[in-house]
Amino acid sequence: MSKMADYRIQLRELPDWDAYLLAQSGLPGPRGNLELAQAAALEGEKKLFLRYLQYTPEIAPVNSPFEFLAFCGVLGLGRLTAEGSDEFLKLIRSAASDPRWRIREAVAMAMQLLGDADMEKLITELIQWSEGNLYEKRAAAAAICEPRLLMKPQYAIAALHILERITESVETEKNRKNEAFIALRKGLGYCWSVAVAALPDKGKKCMERWFSSVDKDIRWIMRENLKKNRLMRMDSNWTDFWFHSLQ
């Protein structure tokens, strides 16, 4: 039995989850209990998830156990959305701009649950996010650049198009010292490698377009992707050539 399956059984036997989730959250610490969060998302209900979303940054700051409840709430809404409850998409999108990085990660994971159920709906939604604020753009890239979602060529192509749209916006961004831009840049620093590895022939051509950019942040983004082992495994000669060309 997997750890997550064991957690699901335990949660079913508990009348009140809060104390258990807080005690087992793994926070404060370097890593929250993702298996428990996934179990809670699968076993919980709408009322619980909405209550957990009330744990805002003011009362559940970064790395506190109460932040874990908010994480579970976002992830749970992702499961409900995957089951057809589109009413929660606005709440999930709003959480993409949360100042807590773990909550932003929960948003990407929540949208990936939607992708598991309906990739067309995910792509349609993320195209809109890719035109939103910097945090929303980061969430769009992180959500779709998940290997399990890009097994079919048409989905990898959609991911590349979303990355193209977001990367183009970097060129015109003026305020590059705020936390939102830094988060976007960091996300793009690995997302391209995921999409390119999923569809190498087209992906390499799309990525090569950016190798001639004079924008310092775009060049940094491309270099970071070229450091990723997944690209070395895909085509070591191509990756090594372009990595050294961009130095």
Automatic annotation (TrEMBL):
InterPro entries: ARM-type_fold (IPR016024). This is HEAT repeat domain-containing protein. It comes from Flexilinea flocculi. SUPFAM superfamilies: ARM repeat.
